[in-house]
Structures are given as structure tokens and as C-alpha cells.
């Protein structure tokens, strides 16, 4: 296990993660079961705390208070035992200066995955043993990729969301070169891999998953957030098999509900976003409902309905040109068609 020393301020961090990672043994954090047990216990405790202490605080929070309250919520989340946690949560919320995070506070575990810009590691907060996922983004890569706004938006939006099917962002910190996102650990990895392994999901499972995604979307839309990039690659699976919507890089606040920017992945985009004739028309939360229909199709069939060459995908989306195989139940077919035309 890595023993990165703690205590230094972020700007003076003496533990570049590359050095830390190179020392990691194969079994980074004891056994998988131990993790599972820990996270299970903590997530229950955290959930009740968020509900009873943090959520009401968050609801009252405005403007810059959001960030400090997000930190408070992590402080709560990181509390150790179930009996002491109530008292500690109250103490933490009352603290005049919120907890500031830095790399030395975390024990770094095995790599969980690599994205276009980020690397994600299993991590554990030293003081409390709270298990999380630490996403590391390099500032120069963010600048080169011109995604500064996207990252800022992802942090701002995701840290204010509280829903069992939305991956929590507990907080963030940075040093001279990197930005670190403290994320909820999704113990069962990517949904995409589960789908590949299964070929397609049975109706009962697809129904459960779609209900979870619909619930997450209802919550998002209620908060006037449009996700705009819902696809199996960006959905993670929690320890209890529950879905966790993640990757809010393309999401936007939609106070007016009127957006013109093109974004997301072609396969999941609705006609109003791919059809040049309709492009000048604004779109709203409904774009996520279209993606929900595409997702439902993909869960039941094993591939997205408009998978083709990019030009053909665009044409087929605009025309709504899809064939639903006969093994899909008539009820599911009906729902896919209704969601797509809503
Ligand atoms: P992109 O940068 O193209 O959006 P991505 O969404 O896959 O790609 P990341 O969010 O950086 O990129 O995640 C990389 C991988 O790490 C994921 O595909 C997933 O396998 C794993 N991962 C990310 N976050 C977590 C998490 N909270 N819990 C468990 N695994 C995670
Ligand atoms: Mg992603």
C-alpha cells in the first residue's frame, strides 16, 4: 500500500501522482471484498447524512456558498463510524473554515480507468478510510484540448447533484499541474462492459435500468440541467448493481431551456441536433429523452438503433429510420417509439 506523506499545501505538493503510482503494488488495497464491505457501510451512512444534514444545507445554499458546502458534504461523507458520524457531521457543518483537500490526504490505489483527458484511481481518505475514486486531469492537456469551460461546468454542475443514480462529486482540489476530482466509487465499473458481456439485457433488467435513468433525468430536468450526452460508456455501475450517470462535461444549465450548440456523440443525438434544417431551432430537455429511447433500444437489442457510417447515422436519425427486432416485446417497442416521438 502506498504511504504518500500528507500535510503539505496543494501548491507545494511533493507527491506527483506519477511517482506515487509507480510504487503501487498489484493488489493496491487489500482484497476486493474488504472494499466492498467498507464502501457498502459508508455509502449507507453517507446517504442518510446527506439526506438529513447536507441536502437541506445545499438547498439553502446560493452562489459561492455552493463550493464550501460541497466541501462540507464531503467532510460529512468522510466521517468514519456510524455512531460518531451524526455528531461529527454537525460539527463539520458548523466549522467556520471548510476542509481543504490535497493529495497527501489520500492513499492512492489501483488505476480504475483512463479517459481522453483523465486518469482515474481508487483512493482512500487517510483520516477516515473513506473509499472514493480520484480523477486526475492535467492542466496543460485541458488547455491544449480547449476544454477549460467543459471541465469547469462539469465540476460546477456535478458537485451540486444528489441522486442515487447520479455519480457524486464530493469535491475537488488542484496543484500547479493537475486538477483532482473526488468522485463516488462505482464498484462495478462501466455499464458498457456489462452490456458487451451480456450481448443484450433481458427485458426485466432493461426496465430496471431505464427506470433508474428516467429517475435521474427527472431529477436533472427539475433542476434545469440537460445532460446532452447519455450513452452506456458514461454510465457506471455501483456496488449494488445500481446505475450511476456520470460525465457531465456536456451538460448545461438550461434556465431558458433554449440551446443551439451541437454536442454529444452522434449515435445518441436527436433529430433537432443533427438535421441541418432544424439546427437553427433551439432545443431543450427533450434531447435527453430521445437519448433515453436510444439507450432503451441498445439495452434490449445490443446495439444502438442508428449505428452506421456518420453520414448515414445523421440521415437515419433525421428520418427516424430504425428497425426494432421482433424479439423485443410489443410493450417495449411501443415505449421506444413513444419516447422518440415525445
Ligand atoms: P472521456 O474522457 O472520453 O469522457 P471517460 O468518461 O471514460 O472518457 P473518465 O471519466 O476519465 O473518462 O474515466 C475513465 C475510466 O475510469 C472510466 O471509463 C471508468 O472505467 C473508470 N472510472 C471513472 N470514474 C470512475 C468511478 N467513479 N468509479 C469507478 N470507475 C471509474
Ligand atoms: Mg466520458
Automatic annotation (TrEMBL):
Residues forming the Protein kinase domain are: 106-342
**Cross-link Glycyl lysine isopeptide (Lys-Gly) (interchain with G-Cter in SUMO2) mapped to chain:** 231
Give the reaction(s) catalysed.
L-seryl-[protein] + ATP = O-phospho-L-seryl-[protein] + ADP + H(+); L-threonyl-[protein] + ATP = O-phospho-L-threonyl-[protein] + ADP + H(+)
Write out the entry's keywords from A to Z: ATP-binding, Kinase, Nucleotide-binding, Serine/threonine-protein kinase, Transferase
* Record GO cellular component, one term: kinetochore
Q: ATP-binding among the record's keywords?
A: yes
Q: Where is the signal peptide?
A: none
Q: Which residues are the active-site ones?
A: 229 (proton acceptor)
Q: Which enzyme type, at the first EC level?
A: transferase
Q: What is its EC number?
A: 2.7.11.1
UniProt-listed InterPro entries:
Aur-like, Kinase-like_dom_sf, Prot_kinase_dom, Protein_kinase_ATP_BS
Which BP terms in the Gene Ontology apply to this protein? attachment of spindle microtubules to kinetochore; homologous chromosome segregation; meiotic spindle checkpoint signaling; regulation of cytokinesis; regulation of mitotic cell cycle spindle assembly checkpoint; regulation of organelle assembly; response to mitotic cell cycle spindle assembly checkpoint signaling; sister chromatid segregation
The molecular function terms in GO held by this entry are: ATP binding; protein serine/threonine kinase activity
Q: Where does ATP bind?
A: 116, 135, 184-186, 247
Which Pfam families does the record cross-reference, listed alphabetically? Pkinase
Identify its protein family: Belongs to the protein kinase superfamily. Ser/Thr protein kinase family. Aurora subfamily.
The protein's name: Aurora kinase
- Protein species of origin: Penicillium cinerascens
